[in-house]
Structure formats: C-alpha cells, structure tokens
UniProtKB/TrEMBL annotation:
This is LemA family protein. The chain crosses the membrane at residues 6-26. The keyword Membrane applies. Belongs to the LemA family. It is found in: Membrane. Pfam families: LemA. Keywords: Membrane, Transmembrane, Transmembrane helix. It is a single-pass membrane protein. It comes from Kiloniella laminariae.
C-alpha cells in the first residue's frame, strides 16, 4: 500500500508532466501561428509589388490604346479595391485580388489588338516583371496555405485542441481563388 507522501509525490509528478505537455503544445501552436503570419507577409509583399507595377502598366497601355478606357478603368478600380481590402480578412483580400487578376487578363486581351504595344520594350519589361510577380504570388500562396493547413490541423486535433481553446487559438483562412471561372481547365484545340 502506498503512503500519503508517495501519492502526493506521484500527483505532483503527474501535474508537472501535464504542465510541461501543455507548454509544449502551446509553443507548437505559437510556432504554427507565426509561420502562417510569415506566409501571409510573403503574399502581402508580392501583392504590393504587383500593385506598384500596375500604374506603369496602365500608363504604357494608355499611350497606345487610349480608347480602351473601360478596360483601363477596370484595372484601376480593381487596384483601388485591393488597396481598400489590405487590412481586411483573408477571404475579402482574396476576392479583391481575384478581381484584379481578372482585370489584368482583360487588359492583356486588349493588348493583343495593338502590335506596336506588344513590341514596345517598356511594355515587354513590365509584362515580364508582372509575370515574375504572379509566379512569386503563386509560390507565396502555396507556402501560406500549407502553413495554414498545419495550424488548422493542430488547432482542431486532440489533444492540441484542449490547449488551443484555452488560449484562443483559432483556425486561419486559406487564401483561395474566389472566381470559379479561374478553376476551370482551359480548353486546348489542336
């Protein structure tokens, strides 16, 4: 039979183990949350680079295709919406950025009608920069969404969920394509 002091020591040991376990889970959740924040920061940097490039792109196109006013206005308005959504939640920002991407697609469709513009070195440089930025945005989105997945799994999995609820860790939102048309596979005709 165990003495009272032995039971007290065992109880203290169990409490110590539980306390250390909770600290380990808490620290893991903090690390995951910080990785998601870092991932979002990467997206934000690339989106700002794109937003800063757009006025130059619009001005270059405007010089050649000034009568394409509605297309140029759509790009400018979409850029303004993105600027307004900067401090908003991730889904709202994703929707605004999706509209900007659609407006840019429309802009490049207009450019096809202007051979002189397509050959302009300034425009070609801007187009190349935009293409590189879009690739960087895609990589940043993948990294961010991967860190969000890890965080969300931890926040919802047992036993981590016990610590997550206690310290108000919440699921993070994925940065997703909002336009269902963007998800369609383009048709190829040969």
């Amino acid at each position: 039979m165990l003495s009272l002091s032995t039971l007290a020591l065992m109880s203290a040991g169990v409490l110590l183990v539980l306390f250390l376990w909770a600290i380990a889970i808490y620290n893991k959740l903090v690390r995951y949350r910080q990785q998601a924040a870092e991932g979002w920061s990467g997206i934000d940097v690339q989106l700002k680079r794109r937003a800063n490039l757009i006025p130059n792109l619009v001005e270059t196109v405007k010089g050649y295709a000034s009568h394409e006013k509605s297309t140029l206005e759509a790009v400018t308005e979409s850029r303004a919406r993105c600027a307004d959504a900067v401090r908003g939640p991730v889904p709202e920002r994703g929707a605004a950025e999706g509209l900007l991407s659609q407006a840019l697609v429309g802009l490049f469709a207009v450019v096809e009608d202007y051979p002189d513009l397509k050959a302009d070195e300034s425009f070609l440089g801007l187009q190349k920069s935009l293409s590189e930025i879009e690739d960087n945005i895609q990589m940043a989105r993948r990294y961010y969404n991967g860190t969000v997945r890890i965080l969300n799994i931890a926040v919802e999995s047992f036993p981590d969920v016990l610590v997550a609820r206690q310290f108000h860790f919440e699921r993070a939102d994925y940065f997703q394509i909002e336009d269902s048309q963007d998800r369609l596979v383009p048709g190829v005709s040969l």
